[in-house]
Amino acid sequence: MDSKKRLSPGPGTSPIRRRRFILVIAAFLCFIYFFGSPFRLPATLRNASGVSRAKIVHLVKGSKSQTAVKVDEIYGLLNLVTGDSEHEHILGHTESFDPTKPVDMALYAAGKEDLDWKERVEELNTRYPVVVFSKSYCPYSKRAKDLLAAYDVSPPPKIIEVDLRDDAIQVKTVLTRLTHHATFPNVIIRGKSIGGSDQLHALHANRSLRRTLEKAGMTVRGDIS
Ligand SMILES: *[C@@H]1O[C@H](CO)[C@@H](O)[C@H](O)[C@H]1NC(C)=O
């Protein structure tokens, strides 16, 4: 009797209407929860007409879980510049891109939407414990590279010749912002800049470079006294 009443809405059944209203609100909140508010969509997605709704949901969810994992932006840059396919680097491809401000990690993912940053940071630290941002014609860069070559470390330092990249200005701007070191070379050991050639040579001079490299997980094979 009671249930029948509920199913047939008649005049003057305000509790049912209220319940319906609550149901509609609840459904709306569920919708917001699962699909994300359109106001939170990143600017790049808002203008992307070719992206399906499903994909947007996926991307929004992905970026949510990425921000849950706190990753230093430098690893984003390292991921981008150590990638094998150079044409994939995208710094500066969007008009709204501003390298002087913190960059969304998704831009560093080089097309990999579901990149697990926590895993990637481990991988970057293991495969490329030393990354040298260099300029191919710069004598200071050469001095740093020569010194590291004398240590003959394994894994070998990853040398990035920034001037040979299409996004040289963007990479330099991001690197300066993140490391507060504006010149080349810029030697990065496990995500931290130790400075340039002078700092590297100072570590060598006071005999702490070998230890620094070994602590970063490298094997020194060079005959360094
Ligand atoms: C060696 O030189 C580096 C760079 O100048 C300095 O940071 C470090 O404290 C020095 N270490 C020792 C053991 O003198």
Automatic annotation (TrEMBL):
The keyword Membrane applies. It comes from the Eukaryota. Residues 130-194 form the Glutaredoxin domain. GO terms for molecular function: glutathione disulfide oxidoreductase activity. Keywords: Membrane, Transmembrane, Transmembrane helix. SUPFAM superfamilies: Thioredoxin-like. The chain crosses the membrane at residues 21-39. The keyword Transmembrane applies. GO terms for cellular component: cis-Golgi network; fungal-type vacuole; Golgi lumen. GO terms for biological process: cellular response to oxidative stress. PROSITE patterns: GLUTAREDOXIN_2. PANTHER family: GLUTAREDOXIN 2. This is Glutaredoxin domain protein. The lineage of its organism: Eukaryota, Fungi, Dikarya, Basidiomycota, Agaricomycotina.
